[in-house]
Amino acid sequence: MREKYNPEGSLLRRQQMRMLEILVEIDRICKKHGISYWLSSGTLIGAARHGGFIPWDDDLDIEMMREDYDRLMKVLPDELPQTMVLQTHETDSTYFFYYAKIRDRRSLLAEGNNYDRMWKEQGIYIDIFPLERQPLCIHKISEKTVGHMYKIWRTCTDDNVGIRKVMRWFHFNRRFVFPVLRMLCRMSGTEVITSGMGIPYHNPRYARDIFPLGTLKFEGIEFPVPHDYDHMLRLMYGDYMKLPPEESITAHCARLEFLD
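^ thats the sequence. predicted structure below, dont judge the formating
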């Protein structure tokens, strides 16, 4: 499959190796500061099924609990090498996702959804997702507010007007909506763990499947993974070891250029 989708020297394989460089740096920083994280989503499936990237995959995802995420955001700006940069709203004023990206500064990437068209940083990236304990019904409320932001950005005819509207919603959610929803989550006492407030993915996980963390080899390097990743992946995706139909395979990246 690698010969078909991502042979050595291909644009996709070069992108995957650049993402792996970023992951190695994140792993180093997390170990230095005692921060727990793990491979997630398609990256975790790739580790379990292929021992590395899913051959056609053009993104890389990791997860961590909110408290570790907040700690990591504080140390990353001083720890990352000059070839990489943290992307959040605080570092890139028109960035409106509620999770962070680490970008490579030696490449330019355009995504198919065109959400990134006004962002300052547009290099190859990996996603860092914070997780929180929250009932799915509450998380879906936060998804609705973000869905409205995305709709504004997809349908606006003037980017300058559109970004002002999007950022008003972004700040309203962070200052008012999400704190209220988090208070309700604390009152619920739920054991369900899912993506943080405003992140439009709500597959449930459970602490007993995640902790204590184990490891799997990914592209020949050991990285942290959930303790019972098999049960977690089956809960989220069903039979994840079965390859999807080829016609269902889609790419996130619409255009990619290496600057070095």
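The chain has one domain: 2-132+203-258.
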